[in-house]
TrEMBL record:
This is Aldo/keto reductase. Belongs to the aldo/keto reductase family. Pfam families: Aldo_ket_red. The keyword NADP applies. Residues 27-264 form the NADP-dependent oxidoreductase domain. Keywords: NADP, Oxidoreductase. The keyword NADP applies.
């Protein structure tokens, strides 16, 4: 198991960059005071990783929160993603510039291809490689790429993706994909670790929460981290943002990790990476 010690702890990407393993997701946070407050609260609570995307339409707010914060820019790991309509070589370079402009930053820490748009994601990846070689981004990766997408991309890529951000929660573990990523030193990352809140409507983890005297959210996030998966729970609620970071004073047993793994039923709440039309 990787060493998981505190909110500013990191996992090392294959190019040596340290990526904080707990971050704040800002999907569906409005590009006004809502996202500004969420990011500022997270930074105040000790988070050092913020995950946005051009399609979230809140990059300006994320940038504003960072500028208003006393946390130095170089201490914050900022992630954004190129949206499907912007994929392709030149259009990706343009989209990257647009994201930087909205964030008012000089570089990104991680830039991802948001979805594997068939027939075009290799061109998009070439653009990301160019940005990486020009040191405009510290790491590059993908999101929602299944094993066959990764294998296809790696046939022509000169750089193996550093990260694969996937829907990941107790009902969608995809262990064989995690194993493939680990084998190729592609850091696995979870989006929607709480199934957009649906996991809280089940009682399946209540006993574990009682056993460790923690919340179900804490159990899930700790499970993510102990599996070596970076996680970015989304919230715009100050209490929950602070509470989500309270996962460093306990450790799940191997049996309890295996119990959660066994809940896997290949149940998606988001789109299927093999069958999406946007």
């Amino acid at each position: 198991m990787k060493n998981i010690t505190n909110i500013q702890g990191t996992f090392q990407l294959h190019n040596g960059v340290q990526m904080p393993y707990l971050g704040l997701g800002v999907y569906q946070s409005n590009n006004d005071q809502e996202v500004v407050d969420a990011v500022q609260w997270a930074l105040e609570a000790g988070y050092r990783h913020v995950d946005t995307a051009s399609i979230y339409k809140n990059e300006e707010g994320v940038g504003r929160a960072m500028r208003n914060s006393s946390t130095p820019r170089e201490d914050i790991f900022v992630v954004s993603k190129v949206w499907n309509n912007d994929q392709g070589y030149e259009s990706t370079l343009k989209a990257f510039d647009e994201s930087l402009k909205k964030l008012q930053l000089e570089y990104l820490d991680l830039y991802l291809i948001h979805w594997p748009v068939q027939g075009i994601y290799k061109e998009t990846w070439s653009a990301l490689e160019k940005l990486y070689k020009e040191k405009r981004v510290r790491a590059i990766g993908v999101s929602n790429f299944m094993q066959h997408h990764l294998e296809d991309l790696m046939k022509t890529a000169s750089i193996v993706p550093m990260v694969n951000q996937m829907e990941f929660h107790p009902y969608l573990v995809q262990q064989s994909l995690i194993d493939f990523c680990n084998q190729h030193q592609i850091q696995y990352e979870a989006w929607s670790p709480f199934m957009q809140g649906k996991i809280f409507n089940t009682a399946v983890l209540d006993d574990l929460a009682k056993k460790y005297n923690k919340s179900v959210a804490h159990i899930i996030l700790r499970w993510n981290l102990q599996k070596g998966v970076i996680t970015i729970p989304k919230s715009s609620n100050q209490e929950r943002i602070i509470s989500n970071s309270d996962v460093f004073d306990f450790e799940l047993s191997i049996d309890d990790i295996q119990f959660i793994d066994a809940l896997d039923s290949n149940q998606r709440i988001g789109p299927d990476p093999d069958n999406f039309n946007f």
